[in-house]
Amino acid sequence: MREDVSEEPIVPLTVSETDSGTDLVTDHVAEGSPEAASPALMGGPEGTAPTTAEPASATEYLGGLLHRLITLLPAAVEQQDAESIYLARTTSRRLSAGLGLIGPLLPRQAKSLRRLIRAVRKTRKTLGTARDEVVMRDRLAHLELGAETRAAAEFVLGYLLPAEADAIEPTARSAARCRKLRARLEKGSEVVTAIAGIDPATLNTHIASGLAERWLAFGTLAELQSVGGASVGGAGGVGGAGVDPHELRLAGKEARYAMELAAAHGFEVSPDLLKRMKQLQDDLGAWHDHFVLAAAIVDRCGGGMSLSRPQTAAMAMKAASESLTTAGADLADFARHYDKHAKTLDSLVTLAAVPKEPTEPIEPMLQQAPDQPIA
Question: Mean pLDDT of all residues in the chain?
């Protein structure tokens, strides 16, 4: 996989996209899935104009994300719709990252900000178990396995552990939780509104420095991973040079979401920078999916399963081994992609992390929010 990144650009967020091919905790889109052939964030197919309005400021961008998350709650929480769960989780991650970046400029709203961030994280956590089950089955379907091994792994994945089963709520309880989450999120709109009151020059400088800091944190870990090679030994799936791929993946998210916020605020963020960052996140997201799949199979094969169905458990463990091997290959792909494009990425980030000229603040559009980008 040494070839240049050739994936299609990013698409504005709509609730009609398919759910197939995405990972557990990242917004990764698997190669060949319908989402991988979507129009661009910075323009439509082949450089044409975007089909939906772009946010004109960080305030408008975050206001749109908050509005979208609130809108998706009924279908995601109450109806457990897989597509809505995916969209709600990716939206919540971008919102959390944006609030975390700009939050230090809102000392008067510190308490409200903490409450809003907790509400956003609670929403994402509420939807986690259902999402994980969908993604594990999708990754299993793409592993190269024999028929008997695949059947055994599918059988094992059909047995939820007690804690996982408890996390899937009955409809009545989900409806009550949805109303509570919605109320908390709606109350947090005052935090987004307050961003419009920040001095424009101060906000621009803060976004630029935040982007540079997040890129540096990610680049430092990525360099260690690239130099140290790729392996998935140990319970934590540790990568090259002792780097924790999970920590690397989270740092990559923070950097990429800072780039998206900066782009929405008018910074010169190259579409090529966003595409290459997405490729790196795709590699790390694939690692995470395959590692978690292997761990889930091992956990569910333990105890009663290994005693009551020893042959099935043994066959399923072969699938776990293959998934773990694939996770190692995913880290190797990341190291190769980063090594090839590191200098280009550094240059593009340097150009992007330049404070733009101050403009008049724009009030957030919480009721008629523009579409926001997803992977």
Answer: 78
How does 75-109 read in b/e, with b if 16+ C-beta sit within 10 Å? bbbbebbbbbbbbbbbbbbbbbbbbbbbbebbeeb
Chain-centroid distance of CA 97 in Å reads: 10
Alpha carbon distances (Å) from 206 to 257, 279, 345, 375: 15, 27, 21, 25
pTM above 0.70, yes or no: yes
Give the up-direction half-sphere exposure of residue 45: CA atoms within 13 A in the CB hemisphere: 3
Contact 189, 308 (CB under 8 A): no
Distance from C-alpha of 19 to C-alpha of 26, rounded to nearest angstrom:
13
H or E element at residue 12: strand 11-12
User: DSSP code of 77?
Assistant: I
What's the start-to-end Cα distance of the chain, in Å? 20
Poorest-pLDDT segment among 13-27, 81-95, 324-338: 13-27
